[in-house]
Specification:
This protein is mainly α. The chain has a domain of 385 residues. It is 73% helix and 1% strand. The chain has 30 helices and two strands. The chain has a two-stranded antiparallel ribbon. β1 and β2 form a beta hairpin. It is globular, with a radius of gyration of 27 Å. The termini are far apart.
């Protein structure tokens, strides 16, 4: 099958149609309360594109990852459709479709067979394992960084074929943009070395020097990423990290081959040790895979290359298995780039099959075509589980009923919908199995909304006893004290919450509000200035500073604060009234 502009146009149309048929349903999905909230619909930074908001996204984490370019794309979405989820899902789907085309292009460059490349590109497009990266708005970083990863890889392949220096620097630039989208693409320099090795190029001094322009930003961004992951890295031992690396590798490999019981969460409930049969099985299985790849070197480098690409690009997630209060075997999005290595092994097998004659070639393509269609149906069904938070976490509990995090999050989804009785039932069911401070706080919040202040205080106090460092306990107790008029106690509790979590902006905001009620003008003003230093986009801080300035007779300063609040949120009615009042009284 020859490649031409007509073929390219047909490929784009085919991939776009298949993407809409497979994932078009996500355009009706809502946001979910798993990162979508603080990354998108509760995040003021995405509501405006200004020098201040751009500076903010380039100087902060999210809170663990440094991915400023991803937030720029959210800002663009907001300018197009506000907080309409369909706009954010549509951009994710567009990036995924382009990535599938790029995967086909990479496989064509590597194997020179357009038909096989297109077929496997469609398999990548419709693979159920990729549903999470497409259907989850907060996974924008994955689809966006993959676009730059693949684009950079393709530019490098063209550079190796043409020796055009400009193409080399285009590849480096695209890699840099990928790092700004998500640091997990940091493995690209090693992937490029694998491509050199596959093509028989000597890995010598010249080859290594050629990768320096990739390695330097990779090291810099890797160090930056460590600052965001400090807490996550500290909670597990080196031995646990090594053992779970085998578990994640085998789990991702199996999920690619047999994508069943897919879920946003895959809790690992056993002990992380060699005594665990699951971990021991994973170690043996991975060792067998590596051994088979090494044995295959007698005949070809293709299998070792594909498995090596899979392992190398999967490596950045090996330390990301402990989240919150649970340990996880993996996540579907972890396979988004690594599966390209497994697809290259399939491409090699199909090419070898095609060389045996047309009948074999036809049979191989039919099998892959059937798998792509079956995968598309399964992916479409899986995408429907992302309809909303309730559906998402209910799906987890259907497949993994022991997931405590899913039960906790389902309870919070019910609470957000005003279904406090259902929320209470989920929290009670979880707490019967294990007393989690966060779930005690959530149950306390539910009781508070039901008017049971005594029950709420009891839960918050118990959470504090279990974990004296759990800041939310103090914050919620402070809220009860504030609403009951006990401002002195509220101030003390808010200060404690802030001391335990210096980045706790809500605690600072409520502390300042309590200080205003106590007419502690100087203390309140300093609190809101500290809050603005933490988050220059926190609109309420400017508004409250303006109120303080009015009360203390600083009318001109009040006008400036109200004006700044309106710059950040032109629809703030209170700030508009305050500005008008301050100008009249000036």
């Amino acid at each position: 099958m020859p490649f031409s502009n007509r073929t390219a146009a047909l490929c784009v149309a085919l991939f776009a149609a298949c993407a809409l048929l497979t994932f078009g349903g996500i355009l009706k999905n809502a946001f979910v309360t798993l990162d979508d909230n603080y990354l998108i619909y509760e995040n003021p930074v995405i509501t405006r594109i200004t020098p201040g908001t751009i500076k903010h996204v380039f100087t902060t984490f999210d809170p663990e990852l440094y991915d400023p370019l991803t937030f720029i794309t959210y800002q663009i979405d907001y300018q197009i459709g506000g907080l309409n989820p369909a706009v954010y899902h549509a951009q994710n789907l567009a990036w995924h479709t382009i990535n599938a085309l790029l995967v086909a292009w990479v496989l064509w460059e590597l194997f020179g067979n357009v038909a096989i490349a297109i077929l496997l590109g469609l398999l990548y497009l419709a693979h159920p394992l990729n549903t999470e990266a497409v259907a989850w708005a907060a996974a924008r970083k994955d689809v966006l960084s993959t676009f730059f990863f693949l684009s950079s890889l393709l530019a490098y392949i063209r550079y190796r074929a043409t020796s055009v220096t400009r193409t080399y620097w285009v590849s480096v630039g695209l890699f840099f943009l990928g790092l700004l989208s998500k640091v997990s693409v940091v493995t690209l320099p090693i992937a490029l070395l694998l491509i050199d090795w596959r093509e028989g190029r000597r890995i010598d001094r010249d080859s290594m020097q050629e990768k320096v322009a990739y390695v330097i930003p990779a090291v810099v961004f890797g160090i930056i990423a460590l600052f965001g992951k400090t807490n996550a890295l500290a909670v597990t031992t080196l031995a646990q990290k090594i053992l779970m690396a085998f578990m994640t590798t085998w789990f991702t490999f199996l999920s690619f081959l047999v994508p069943t019981k897919l879920s946003i969460l895959y809790p690992f409930t056993g002990a992380v040790s060699l005594a665990s049969p699951h971990i021991l099985t994973a170690i043996v299985a991975v060792c067998i895979l590596v051994t088979l790849a090494l044995v295959s070197l007698r005949r070809t480098r293709e299998i070792a290359f594909g498995l090596g690409f899979f392992l190398v690009t999967l490596a950045p997630v090996f330390v990301n298995f402990a989240k919150g209060n649970e340990i996880y075997m993996g996540s579907d999005r972890y396979g988004y780039i690594p599966m390209i290595g497994l697809l290259s092994i399939i491409a090699y097998v199909l090419v070898q099959t095609a060389q045996r004659g047309r009948t074999w070639m036809f049979a191989g393509n039919v099998v892959m075509g059937i798998l792509a269609v079956v995968g598309a149906v399964a992916a479409s069904v899986q995408a429907a589980t992302w309809r909303d938070s309730e559906t998402l976490f209910s799906n987890v509990l259907v497949n993994y009923p022991n997931s405590l995090t899913a039960r906790n999050n389902l309870g919070m989804a019910y609470l957000a919908q005003g279904k406090s009785d259902k929320a209470l039932a989920e929290f009670n069911a979880l707490l019967e199995k294990k007393e989690w401070p966060i779930t005690l706080v959530n149950r306390g919040l539910t009781k508070f909304r039901q008017g049971d202040n005594a029950g709420a205080i009891a839960d918050y106090t118990r959470a504090m006893e279990l974990d004296p460092m759990f800041y939310d306990s103090y914050y919620e107790l402070g809220n009860i004290a504030y609403r009951s008029g006990n401002l002195t106690s509220a101030i003390d509790l808010y200060k404690k919450a802030h001391a335990l979590k210096p980045q706790y902006t809500n605690a600072l905001n409520n502390l300042g509000a309590a200080q205003i009620q106590m007419q502690q003008w100087n203390e309140a003003a300093q609190t809101f200035r500290d809050l603005i230093a933490l988050n220059p986009l926190f609109v309420e801080a400017y508004y409250n500073l303006a109120v303080i300035d009015e009360q203390t007779g600083n009318k001109q300063e009040a006008i400036g604060m109200y004006t700044q609040a309106l710059r950040l949120n032109p629809n703030d009615a209170d700030a508009t009234k305050g500005l008008a009042r301050a100008r009249l009284m000036r």
